[in-house]
Amino acid sequence: MNAFKFTSSLALAVVLSFVATGCKHKTPPPITRFPNGGMNGNSGDNLGDSGKLGNGNGPVPVGGGEGATFNPDDMAQDRSAFAADTVYFDYDSSTIKGGEQSKLTAIASALQSDASAKLLVEGYCDERGTEEYNRSLGERRALAARESLANAGVSADRVATRSYGEDRAADPGHTPAAWAKNRRDEFVLLHPK
User: Which of 44, 45, 137, 157 gives 67 a disulfide partner, CB atoms 3.0 to 4.6 angstroms apart?
Assistant: First the structure.
């Protein structure tokens, strides 16, 4: 009888462990902040009656700021223009390190010489931390770069931010070196189509 109880308990534990770890959750869409303070994505803010963010007709106002909005997805994107200027962050930090500031200065200079250009800043994290926390941290990293660019003279209404959190890893490894490559901001040059 004791062997039966033990075997039953062991079988139940195995089944529960498969149930608990075997389900992959659907990745939420990235959070995009538009220059006027509006945003889209799945941040949990400004949910309408349908349970979806906004009404599907563009950015959702979340306060502050007037001025023209633009949707980065409606513009021609050049990912190679600032590929060498990826900014890297320390673990669990959204503070831009001194050694990374020269990259932002170069981006600001390029934007100031082309008045039609706009910019998308994408914030990323390594795999450690919850998905929700990493979305938030990626957003803080992107906003830190946007603020640094504004301090360098780039009008904030020319810069949109987006957080991918831990999604879209630059290095899929599970080592400290891989994690360091994944804690980053990438910059996408935008022009009207």
Answer: 157
Angle in degrees, 0-180, between the axes of helices 101-112 and 131-151, rounded to the nearest 10: 60
**Separation of alpha carbons 9 and 20, rounded Å:** 16
- Under 8 Å between Cβ of 37 and 64: yes
Mind listing the pLDDT tens digit for each residue in 104-126?
Answer: 999 999 999 999 999 999 999 99
Q: What is the rounded distance in angstroms from the CA atom of residue 41 to the CA atom of residue 54?
A: 9
Secondary structure class of 189 (helix, strand, coil): strand
Q: Among candidates 74, 19, 29, 27, which has minimal Cα distance to 52?
A: 29
Query: Is there a contact between 67 and 155 (Cβ–Cβ < 8 Å)?
Result: no
Closest CA to 171 of 94, 88, 97: 88
Sorted by where each begins, the domain ranges of the chain are: 26-191
The fold of the 26-191 domain, in CATH, is 60s Ribosomal Protein L30; Chain: A; (3.30.1330)
pLDDT in tens, 41-65: 433 333 333 333 333 333 322 222 3
Q: Please report, in angstroms and rounded to a whole number, the separation of the first and last CA atoms in the chain.
A: 74
Distances 65 to 62, 112, 140 between C-alpha atoms, Å = 9, 21, 18
